[in-house]
Amino acid sequence: MRIDEKVALLHKPGVYPGEVRQVEVIETHFSWVFLTERNVYKLKKPVRYHGLDLTTLAARRHNCEQEVRLNRRLAPDVYLGALALTSTDHSGFELDGRGPVVDWLVVMRRLPAERMLDAAIRAGTVSADEVRKFSLLLADFYRRAAPVTLDPEAYRQRFATAVQANHVELTAPAYALPGAQIAGLTRSQKHFLRAQGHLLARRARDGRVVDAHGDLRPEHICLTPDPVIIDCLEFDPELRRLDPTDELAYLALECERLGAPALGADVLRHYREATGDDCPDALIHFYTVFRACLRAKIAIWHLADCAPAERDHWSERARSYLDLAASHADRW
Q: Distance between CA atoms of 295 and 328, rounded to whole angstroms?
């Protein structure tokens, strides 16, 4: 069964259980996402991309099961399970039937779009109590997470390697990004690693690096009465092995980009108060600059496959991240 046949089937309301009147469809790099009134069904694409290989049925099943297991850490009632797509005797297909399995889907409870943190920031509806609640949820998550054993020097070197890789990519002539600004940001990060790299080494030595979320953005935080956090990075454990203050600096960066810098600062304050983690401000600013440069690189990568009408959007997004990085680069 080809992927286009599966997608065509999953467009149809009648394939889903219950009374489904319409199906909204979203395509991402890795998935097709089908939204009914109550639930969300995610079909993985059979792709191989940046170390992720979903080209076999077994790999897609494993990935679905991993996504459910890992995301239940912060959204236990949202991720309902992995569901089989099966064939029927009459060359048809159904969800969770008795025939041979042709693919797997992640099934989630649908969350209210207007209560996702990015939407609430834009609407100006985020309350201090909501920020406190999800911050304490994260603090408890990090406090309970098992530490990852890392060599302190290897942890520092991981950033040194990534800083150089970001520089090489961002200065590619095809992107036409501001070379002097990028060079200055790279120099600042390298200077920090020489002069204050011991702060990174200490984080690894003190067991501060944990199996974290890996992609903590406002659009993944839902401000329901009991907040939930979805869409962790499930396919590569190395990318989830993070210092919590690195991950929270990334979230604060994204809040700042949306016009809410105080919100990100409040999250970090709640985390520090709840955990007693005295991570130096200088290191948090380094993490912020590093994440901003990384996000600029990811934004500019979209030029390779975006529609012509979207090219200006992604170029401007990359430049906005570089400007945010520059605003933090002189704070250490």
A: 15
* Terminal C-alpha separation, the chain: 56
Q: Token pair of 174, please?
A: 């095809």
Rounded distance between C-alpha atoms, residue 319 and residue 132, angstroms: 31
Region 117-328: CATH code:
3.90.1200.10
User: Helix 261-275 and helix 244-257: axis angle, to 10°?
Assistant: 160
Q: Which amino acid is residue 300, in one-letter code?
A: I
Whether the full predicted model's pTM is greater than 0.90, yes or no, is: yes
CA Rg value for the chain: 21
* Residue 243 token pair: 């210092």
CB 212 within 8 A of CB 117: no
- For residue 13, give every residue at least 6 positions away whose Cβ sits within 8 Å of its Cβ, in sequence order, or none: 20, 21, 22, 23, 36
Domain with CATH 3.90.1200.10 in the chain: 117-328
CA dist., res. 96 & res. 136, Å (int): 37
Instruction: Tell me the pLDDT tens digit for each residue of 98-145.
Output: 899 999 999 999 999 999 999 999 999 999 999 999 999 999 999 999
Fold of 3-110: Phosphorylase Kinase; domain 1 (3.30.200)
User: By the 8 A CB rule, do 78 and 230 touch?
Assistant: yes
Distances (CA, A) of 159 to 153, 221, 294, 306: 10, 27, 11, 29
Collapsed DSSP state (helix, strand, coil) of residue 221 = strand
